[in-house]
Amino acid sequence: MSRYLPSLLTTTIRARTTLASSSKPRLHRTMTSRAVEASRAVLKSIDLSADYDPEQTRLMDERCILVDEDDRALGAADKKTCHLMENINKGLLHRAFSAFVFRPADGKLLLQQRASEKITFPDMWTNTCCSHPLDDFAEERDEVEQRGVRVAATRKLEHELGIPQSQTPIDAFQYLTRIHYLAPSDGIWGEHEVDYILFLTADVTVEPNLNEIRDHKYVDKAELQAMFENSSNSFTPWFKLIARDFLFGWWDELLARRDAQGKVHAKSLAGLVDGSKVVKMV
Predict the structure, then answer these.
(1) What is the rounded CA–CA span in Å between residue 249 and residue 279?
(2) Looking at 117, 140, 191, 193, which residue is catalytic?
């Protein structure tokens, strides 16, 4: 395990009246949680047109899935609403994923460095791909066997890194767990997510979208630890949390479960973690 620490406008949330079909009924659902209250509120938005990259501004109109602290779907709001600290501080919470792609032959992890154009956490190193299932797409709202986040992961791996979706089939992702965390980016922006952690082992073709990422590379465990120890590098907060508490142990297990040809397989980690509950890291 690693040694390091890791002008305003008004917008209204569109609430969904029913939960996804896979949600289990709860007899004692807490309807007064901060996330539930925030999802019903009139929240703040912001005009991005003058100060930010046009493409990244456009993407901020995509709608995230709002959830409560137990990852029950509540409705939807655009990304800029979800990522404003003023709203996060009220409890607004959304669903996300973090995908980790490992090379089968040597078990190295593919990292990306976020582009300078990114509105949140620009220029920081992070896991292979981190983004959101969108309320805009019905299949990404599907909660059965984490299908929605898997579909979103393969879509965003193509969008950000140019990896063909044929190389990242949704059934090849191994879901491990969900974490609930909160992290500010600057005085305006931040993250407050229930983040699904997905592992994938695949030989992939990377053709970076330079509006999304400025660099990428494969690293082994020792190389990643050295990156963390180098103060000239900066890292996204969710990546630091996952690395601190989970990644290196799971990586050890992945390497230990190589097949007879010496290749690693994400699916070998099935059952390693009880992913039925949200891990609270706030």
Answers:
(1) 16
(2) 193
pLDDT tens-place string over residues 218-254: 999 999 999 999 999 999 999 999 999 999 999 999 9
Amino acid sitting at position 147? R
Task: Tell me if residue 193 is catalytic.
Answer: yes
- pTM here is 0.88
**Residue 64 annotated among the catalytic residues of the structure:** no
Per annotation, catalytic residue among 130, 140, 158, 191: 130
Q: Which two tokens stand for residue 108?
A: 């190295």
Burial class (CB in 10 A: 0-12, 13-18, 19+), 84: buried
CA distance 98 to 183: 15
Give the tens place of pLDDT for each residue, 154-168.
999 999 999 999 999
> What is the full DSSP assignment across 216-272?
EEEE-HHHHHHHHH-TT--B-HHHHHHIIIIIHHHHHHHHHT--TTS---GGGGTTS
